[in-house]
Records
---
Amino acid sequence: MTMLSVGDTRAWIDRFADAAEDQFDSLTDLDRLVGDGDFGMNLRTGLRSAVQRLRSDPPTSPGEVFARTSDAFLDIGGTSGPLLGLWFGRIGAVSGVEVTATDLASALGTATAAVQRLGNAQVGHKTMVDAMVPATSALTEAAVSGATLSAALNSAATAARLGAESTRAMLARRGRATYVGEHARGVEDPGASAIAMFFAASSYKSVPA
């Protein structure tokens, strides 16, 4: 894949939603250990709503897919809803009916920076940013090197998974996990895990536009 089409993007969100269903229990268990246990439900609810919106009013561009996913998350509660809504909203600013690796990398950079500003979070704080930042960097570096979009997304997925795994050793400095202190060590941050799931869902076949 060299360009991201609307069909590719819809399929990406569909696969992300399927992963959220499959991993609902594990995400909920992670959040019970470091938060209030509602992350799995919020992620699943947001993605179910996003899929329904995309089916009822088919988008015409990748940016519209991400924008409607943003709207779905902004309509749910919790801490994760506004952050994911902001992130997808900024990604949704990408223009064109087909999106290059460079275009997507630029949108991701803007989106991740916005989340960092809103949450006042940096890499090492044990948040979703620990997966967002390395994934964005990996995709950007791959795009600059001239890699195909598929290769760039694969690099981002690997970086996001490693970033999520790195949160296990961290002491939380942002979010509800700060309340449990050392008890959060050894637990992967559920937000970072979800971002890794998102990038892992970026490959495979598209759906009809």
Note: The chain has nine helices and no strands.
---
Amino acid sequence: MRARAVEVLDSLHESYPNSKTALDWETPFQLLIATMLSAQCTDVLVNKVTPALFAAYPTPESMADAPQEHLQELVKRTNFFRNKSKNMLASAIRIRDVFGNEVPRNMEDLISLPGVARKTANCVLGTAFDIKVGVVVDTHVGRIARRMGFTKAMKPVAVERDLVKTFAQEDWVYLSHSWIDHGRAICTARTAKCSECFMAEICPRRVEGRMT
């Protein structure tokens, strides 16, 4: 399994040498907020929303003083915008009051923020701080991990547990970004484009021509 993981990574590096998050951000706080907004929403739409949001409230301190109604107005094009704006405000207040206006650099403190679970925390730690404590498991990563036989789990936490056992820690951040790129381009949810996939020869998950 680990030998195949190395093959997979070699192939990914060749095809997606510059994989990174598609979200636009300049500071760890902005990445945190953008990642929170990306839940059940496309990164493209989030990137259309965040310029005005960050122009108005670029820091935890400034957002902590924002009226929730204004935050709702700025992010209303995203799904669940009321709950997201509530969590954004509460997280900004906690970062200001508890963490001295600095986004925490550890999993325990990050997931103490309202609306922040492991996926968001892993994204912020790995992408903003290059701290590799886990693998970001979104729908693309979970789907590809199952199709390629690296896990049978459905729940993201269980998928992550299997992936960190198989892939080297130094590759965890890149693995997420590159599999997300691959999931959008080739290994899509409806139909895996196996005839176009550079990893087809090392992918064991084919069932009657349809990927599960």
Note: The radius of gyration is 18 Å.
---
Amino acid sequence: MSILIQPLITEKLTRLQEMHQQYAFEVARNSTKPQIRKAIEERYPEVKVARVNTMLVPSKPKGRFTKSGFVSGRSRVWKKAIITLKEGEIDLFGEI
């Protein structure tokens, strides 16, 4: 299983990329900070990682009304990693 699942792209994270050289990725829940650092440096060989911060995004209640009544559920728990770079730049849109 891959450690890096997908890059996260939002308005707030785009500002972090421009101002602080920080990038966000959805990563596997059981991955550690050294594993994430190694995966980033292998996938993007032109960058050097300065710091890795991780957080577990908690589950939230979700629900919707359907013909058969209210359907309730919860979103999944996932792990987010914020990567700060020493040098280099990651081109997230070059892979599209």
Note: The domain at 4-63+73-89 is CATH 3.30.70.330 (Alpha-Beta Plaits).
---
Amino acid sequence: MRKKIVAGNWKMNLNKTESIQLINEISAKINGLELGKNRVIVAPVSVNLDAVVSNNNNSKIEYASQNMHFADSGAFTGEVSANMLKDIHVHITLLGHSERRAYFGEDDTLLKKKVDQAMNKNMEVIFCFGEELEDRKAENHFKVVASQLTNALFHLEASAWKNIVLAYEPVWAIGTGMTASPDQAQEMHEFIRNLVKENYNGNVANDVTILYGGSVKPANAKEIFGKPDVDGGLIGGAALKADLFVDIIKAM
């Protein structure tokens, strides 16, 4: 049975003091929640990861990096490796976020290398993908999503999918205030799950968690998360406010 997840991507926000304060606020607010098998994941900026993890030992919160390099070490200025992350007890990484693709030129070939490294290091990957507005308008959104998944993930053995979480993020709905309707989200999530089934089997498809990312707020979270193939959300702006983030967690 797949788990529901609410993951907060803090992006390039908050200094160390602010990060610790926010995680403490979130921790205090979810202490009384019965999460069951549901998961809460937070991805601070990498320079603050160690401080946040060391400061807070609430077992209800897991931590992820926002990025990871494909090499163990070397002349890759500004990058962080899987070994470095694991050394500070971080075993989850976001890969393929639309901002990494758009601003830093990350393509499917590079992401495949990063995914392979994560699998080799037994890291869990929250793999982000989704179409631009022009793709949606041209009705190419299914084709774009299928290509992104095929190129970066579908070479993996079925057994590797225990460490894969999918995060569908329509790029046109990130930070814009626009949101895919719950029916649009379900339509794409169902397509994704069927695509995984076609390339692997029903067990892999049924077990993989598929998150929706794109201007999720407390006001729309419950309806979006209530769709049968939507297993939670990758949250941006609302993850920077403890009250908003916890209200979204409660919608799982």
Note: The chain has eleven helices and eight strands.
